[in-house]
Specification:
mainly alpha, 12 helices, about 0% strand
Length: about 290
């Protein structure tokens, strides 16, 4: 069951990369994140109400739910969008995959989570595999982006740290016994508010593209890549701990690569096969108890 959750989480988030690409155009990125999280949050809370899940968050836990929402549901997504605007998406994905290490380190400090050697070696294998796959893209990107590359690295690093920190905050909320649906629903709505405030601060116009491509990708991102995936991801956090669960993000670029080959005519070569093997070995090491 844990392996199935791990695979489905990576698959749905990997598909989210293609859906996110379909959203590029009229609507500014912060507003797209705000719309996605607002829809996801409402659907999660409605689901919780139908299932009679307690939705009220105790006063002592509200700060941590706000922290999870701001970090995981807003800052991480917006930062990744900003990184992808400045550096190749492969490089941004590579940096984001280090969130597993940040989650493990932060979880060790904040929650006392164990740092198993197999988890660290597995995460490094996964990151190394992604580096092999995206190496040429990284090299060509650095050669052409100039001064923008530093800002792109910084944004991607912020996304990785925010994802790792948000994962640890989620683990803390689960340890406190808070219902997952309630935390995710309120967290997503908080992420929507933070994203909206971000857009307003940047004076981004609120424009919603009404094309079938944009609306279809929005529904996929809000339902499959948010509601369903968030619940599976934080179930993995409960089962595996924040460091091991965050390793799913090391699998996302690989899934996105396969989808590009299927739908965007990307040629897969031996270098990609070697990188994929490294990621699969890392996957085995991380899941091994």
């Amino acid at each position: 069951m844990t392996v199935a959750l791990f695979a489905m989480t990576a698959l749905l988030w990997g598909g989210g990369a293609l859906a996110t690409a379909l959203q590029a155009g009229v609507t500014p990125a912060p507003w797209s994140v705000a719309l996605r999280m607002a829809l996801a949050g409402l659907l999660l809370l409605i689901y919780g109400r139908v299932r009679n899940v307690p939705l009220a968050i105790p006063r002592r836990d509200r700060l941590y739910v706000v922290l999870q929402g701001a970090l995981f549901f807003a800052l991480a997504f917006i930062s990744f969008y900003e990184a992808a605007r400045r550096i190749p998406s492969g490089l941004a994905a590579l940096v984001l995959s280090t969130s597993a290490l940040f989650a493990a380190l932060i979880g060790r400090v904040m929650l006392g989570s164990a740092l198993a050697p197999s988890m660290l070696w597995g995460a490094l294998c996964g990151i190394g595999g992604i580096g092999i796959i995206f190496g040429p893209t990284i090299g060509s990107g650095l050669a052409t982006l100039g001064s923008e590359s530093g800002a792109g690295f910084a944004w991607a690093l912020v996304a990785a740290i925010a994802t790792g920190s948000g994962t640890v905050a989620g683990a803390r909320n689960q340890q406190a016994g808070l219902p997952t649906v309630a935390v995710l629903g309120w967290g997503a709505l908080i992420g929507a508010v933070v994203s909206g405030c971000w857009a307003i601060a940047e004076r981004q116009p609120f424009v919603v593209e009404l094309s079938p491509r944009y609306l279809g990708s929005l529904l996929y991102l809000a339902i499959a890549a948010s509601c369903v995936t968030f619940m599976m991801y934080f179930e993995l956090v409960r089962r595996l701990g924040p460091g091991r669960a965050a390793y799913t993000l090391a699998m996302v670029p690989l899934i996105a690569l396969v989808l590009s080959a299927l739908f965007e005519n990307l040629h897969l070569d031996g270098r990609i096969a070697i990188g994929a093997l490294a990621i699969l070995i890392g996957n085995f090491l991380v899941l091994r108890r």
